[in-house]
From TrEMBL:
Organism of this sequence: Sphingomonas aracearum
Pfam families linked: FAD-oxidase_C, FAD_binding_4, Fer4_8
Gene3D superfamilies per record: 3.30.465.10, 3.30.70.2740, Alpha-helical ferredoxin, Vanillyl-alcohol Oxidase, Chain A, domain 4
Protein name: D-2-hydroxyglutarate dehydrogenase
PANTHER family: D-2-HYDROXYGLUTARATE DEHYDROGENASE, D-LACTATE DEHYDROGENASE
Domain of life: Bacteria
Length: 975
């Protein structure tokens, strides 16, 4: 890394680079403010390195301009390419300029049919899931299947030569490279394609940088063929970065720089475009789940299972399985996996997958079945899963393993530094036994999972990196594991690249080949501009960074005061796995990131800013004010949807930390008038319900609009409360006490939230009428202030009083055995979320769908009814999807009982989120979010669209011109 001695030097260099970019017509984004640099300072590793700046190119021309600008500054500024920012070893961390391809260069440029599939031209920032979603329409896919597919970019996959599950059959990213458009460190552009020796020789006759590269690369490959054959291990994962083994094939007369560039981690060139080969998608899949009472036995059984020739054999240990049961995903797959036998604890589970034509999959399952009788006694049970949805959910569990390990161990987390070793698969069990003995000898816990079929196992020891003594274990464990892996014929890095582990390159390549790596680096990048400190240096004077000499996150985190560490513990817990960077617009997590593609507006980015601010506050840093403003700006676009509290594997609860931060932030700052208005809002709503016509006349008059606009609000909904004559009796302890047990069985308490009661009173009326029509006695808990808006803006003292009052009132009713049921998840779930911080309780306001499903199960809603004509589309609230993911499926079953066919459709956030969609500064983002997934989902739907969330119905009415019905309203109309 460059040596930057002072903030003034950083600012001067960042400014000089900005000028150099501007002079060349750079059209992308360039960020050098402290907040952006703080967000960019971490990945999924143990390290933290704040960059000089971040450049976001928009085109290949911008990539060339970036390189030319760095070259013009004489090597004073380094460049490090970044894709999905999920590197586990600091691959894209550096203190120069980060070139981030994810924001703009994420287009699929062309798909050209070939005899074996298609050649697909993509920009480096295209996400794997994005590519495969597009290819699916052509019956094709890109085979390397990494667990971070929702955010891993093709450029990043090339940089580490990624593989993932199924690599025994499908191979690695480099196996699918057809061509690459690259930019060298001096700005030279070059199209990399396969060449024969004669073509290489002709290019090598030149005097430019391209000629020097081809001369040197061919010389290294030809002169060292015997050494390459002797040094490169005979395993699936290979000695990547730089892959000399596949650079030159003399027998085929094929010279191709792409395999050399794949795995080079941006140290040789920047990539402007990539052409990859796609192949036909397997028509059928099947998955066998095999559980063992011993992890060692599960590992040793892999070689036997491989006789069935599956696509993949993956293994999870008991630590992964135990914490998975606390994840929101378990609600969907727990029944598929089944409970563990009480008499035989499960310590390992393997996934054995088959894919291909139906007869191929059947043949594989038959072969596996024939092996069943020969299995070890350690097998607890096994089952076959063929349902595509269930298979996808089970693989989602496996993909979450990295994040799940971050939840174990209290202050300790599973740390990635020796996590992706690879050895010959037939030696894996013996190797793991020694590996475990090593960790046990240090008294460490750990989790294990991974690609057992190819000998690549992910191991994350649990460490508290804030403890210097535990951080000091990184060196001895890494040294010992490197030696152990080599002794078994394997590698320290089998899948996730080297990054700061580049210091072990001479140990694995040997002195002869490592010297050649340096010469190759010198040919490509003589000034060491590209990702310096990684893999190889161009000359003896340049150094490779050492694993324990690079700044670590833990060293910064230990400077945070105990009080702030407790308040913002989830920000410190964020391990950078990047699940919040999901490409999928239908994924509920982090709408603000999806709308902006700004990493600062994601849970990971917000966690980084909160950590930086908390540290600056604790040590009195001069940066604290700037970081406070950057953090406040980032949190201002958080919709408090709560998706990160469950969909993030680490459960980085941004809304709670946002509330705490804003409370602190406004201790020394004047709150905006809007906050004072929000503090009185629910009291004013009570007045509005009593005077709806007057309220609407005032708030929707021409005179009111500019006043509301000055307060920051637009498009406020009309007040439409329920008619008092249509409302059920109020629930009180005396009324409930008078009910007999039989009457309580058919009783329900509707808990009215102030928003539905004020703006959507018809739903309260129709739900009450529906329930009465089904034979239930309906009571209600009238709308009370719930304090949601107070929590969002950090008015925590008044919120605490409201929380305690609501819990006390609901608690007084809960003991009578009559269920409390809410109509809107965002407020009903506050008992299980926001209230518990201030009023610990085990109260649960269940959803209407939960009550109805239970009632149907007890036979209280009559026999199933004949199917009616028509199909309805059912859409859910994003908070509901995150915290009650079973909701839509439950509604589908309820509607089916009454003869109504409904299809649940996945959507992301609608963009309303309480008051967010009514705030002037959020209009563009609110509308953008609606367009991302809701606009198409409701187009032309009218009465056929059912929406569970109040704010979602409001947004549809505002932006699509009609108010969709709640499922209860449809039932009321039809019954």
């Amino acid at each position: 890394m460059m040596k930057l001695d002072a903030p003034e030097q950083v600012a001067t260099l960042a400014s000089a680079f900005a000028d150099a970019l501007a002079a060349r017509g750079f059209a992308g984004d360039y960020e050098r403010d402290l907040g952006a640099r703080e967000v960019a300072s971490t990945d999924n590793s143990i390290y933290q390195v704040r960059p000089l700046a971040i450049a976001y190119p928009r085109s290949a021309a911008d990539v060339q301009r970036i390189a030319a600008a760095a070259h013009a500054l004489g090597g004073k500024v380094s460049l490090s390419a970044r894709g999905g920012n999920t590197g586990t070893n600091g691959q894209s961390l550096n203190n120069g300029v980060i070139v981030d391809f994810g924001r703009h260069m994420n287009r699929i440029l062309s798909i050209t049919p070939t005899p074996t599939g298609a050649a697909v031209l993509v920009e480096p920032g295209v996400v794997l899931d994005q590519l495969n979603a597009t290819l699916a329409a052509h019956g094709l896919f890109f085979p390397p299947m990494v667990s971070t597919a929702s955010r891993a970019t093709i450029g990043g996959m090339v940089a580490t030569d990624a593989s993932g599950k199924g690599s025994r059959i499908y191979g690695k990213t480099s196996d699918y490279l057809a061509a690459m458009d690259i930019v060298l460190a001096d700005g030279t552009e070059w199209a990399v394609t396969p060449l024969n020796r004669a073509a290489v020789a002709k290019i090598a006759q030149g005097t430019d940088r391209i000629a020097a590269i081809h001369r040197e690369a061919l010389r290294v490959a030809e002169e060292n063929d015997a050494e390459i054959e002797a040094v490169f291990p005979k395993i699936n994962r290979g000695l990547t970065g730089y892959n000399l083994q596949r650079l030159w094939d003399a027998q085929a007369d094929r010279f191709f720089l792409a395999p050399l560039l794949a795995g080079s981690e941006g140290t040789l060139a920047l990539t402007a475009a990539i052409t990859v080969n796609a192949i036909p998608t397997p028509r059928t899949r099947a998955l066998a789940l095999i559980r063992y009472d011993s992890f060692d036995a599960g590992l040793r059984d892999v070689q036997r299972l491989l006789k069935s020739d599956p696509l993949a054999v993956e293994i999870l240990d008991d630590k992964i399985l135990s914490v998975a049961q606390e994840d929101v995903l378990w609600a969907q797959i727990g029944e598929v996996i089944g409970p563990a036998p009480a008499t035989r604890p499960v310590h390992a589970m393997t996934y054995v997958e088959f894919a291909g034509e139906p007869d191929q999959v059947r043949g594989g399952l038959d072969r596996l079945s024939s092996l069943a009788n020969d299995g070890p006694e350690a097998i607890v049970d096994w089952k076959i899963v063929t349902d595509p949805k269930a298979i996808g959910q089970l693989w989602s569990l496996r993909e979450k393993s990295v994040g799940l390990l971050a939840r174990l161990g209290g202050g300790k987390q599973g740390m990635p530094f020796v996590e992706d070793t690879a050895v010959p698969p037939e030696r894996l069990a013996d190797y793991v036994a020694e590996f475990r003995a090593l960790l046990d000898g240090h008294g460490l816990s750990y989790g294990m999972f991974g690609h057992a079929d190819v000998g690549c196992l992910h191991v994350r020891p649990f460490l508290d990196m804030k403890d210097p003594a535990q951080a000091d274990l990184i060196r001895p464990i890494s040294d010992r594991v490197a030696a152990l892996a080599k002794s078994y014929g394997g590698l320290l890095w089998g899948e996730h690249g080297r990054g700061f582990r580049g210091e072990y390159s001479p140990f694995f390549f040997g002195p002869t080949l490592y010297a050649e790596l340096r010469r190759i680096k010198a040919a490509f990048d003589p000034r060491n501009i590209l990702n310096p400190g990684k893999l190889a240096a161009p000359d003896a004077g340049a150094t490779i960074d050492r694993i324990d000499a690079v700044p670590m996150r833990g060293a910064f985190d230990r400077q945070i005061s105990p009080a702030l560490l407790e308040e913002f513990d989830r920000s410190v817990a964020c391990n950078g796995n990047g699940a919040c960077y999901s490409w999928d617009a239908l994924n509920a997590m982090c709408p603000s990131y999806k709308a902006s593609r700004d990493r600062a507006q994601s849970p990971k980015g917000r966690a980084a800013l909160l950590r930086g601010w908390a540290r600056a506050e604790s040590i009195g840093s001069a940066e604290r004010e700037e970081l406070a403003e950057a953090t406040a700006a980032s949190l201002s676009t958080c919709l408090s949807c709560k998706a990160c509290t469950t969909l993030c594997p680490v459960k980085v609860d941004v809304p709670t930390m946002k509330s705490r931060f804003l409370a602190d932030y406004y201790r020394t700052r004047k709150r905006p008038a809007r906050h004072r208005l929000l503090a009185q809002m629910e009291r004013l709503l009570g007045v509005a319900r009593r005077m709806p016509r007057t309220t609407n006349a005032v708030t929707h008059s021409g005179l009111a609009a500019p006043v509301l606009a000055r307060a920051g609000f637009v498009d406020l909904p009309a007040v439409e409360p329920a008619r008092r004559s249509q409302l059920p009796a109020i629930a009180t302890p005396d009324v409930l006490a008078a009910l007999s047990p039989a009457e309580r069985e058919r009783a329900i308490i509707l808990v009215e939230d102030s928003f539905t009661a004020t703006f959507d009173g018809a739903l309260v009326e129709r739900t009450s009428a529906l329930l009465k029509g089904l034979g239930f006695t309906v009571f209600r808990l009238p709308p009370r202030p719930n304090g949601k808006a107070l929590h969002v803006v950090g008015l925590r003292k008044p919120f605490a009083k409201i929380a305690q009052a609501r819990v006390a009132e609901q608690g007084a009713l809960a003991g009578f055995g009559v269920p409390l049921v809410g109509l809107d998840a965002a407020t009903a779930l506050m008992n299980e979320q926001e209230y518990r911080e201030f009023a610990p309780n085990d109260l649960r306001i269940e959803g209407l769908e939960t009550f109805l499903q239970r009632a149907i199960g007890k036979g209280l809603c009559g026999a199933p009814r004949p199917r009616q004509d028509g199909i309805y589309t059912l859409l859910g609230h994003c908070t509901e999807q995150a915290l009650r993911p079973e909701t839509l499926a439950t509604w589908v079953r309820i509607l089916a009982h009454f003869g109504i066919e409904a299809q649940a459709k996945r959507t992301g956030c609608c963009g309303m989120a309480g008051m967010f969609g009514h705030e002037i500064e959020h209009q563009a983002m609110s509308r953008r979010l609606f367009e991302l997934s809701w606009s198409d989902a409701v187009a032309g739907g009218g009465d056929a669209v059912l929406v569970t969330g109040f704010s979602c119905r409001s947004q549809v009415k505002r932006l699509a011109g009609f108010r969709p019905r709640h499922p209860a309203e449809l039932l009321h109309a039809l019954l």
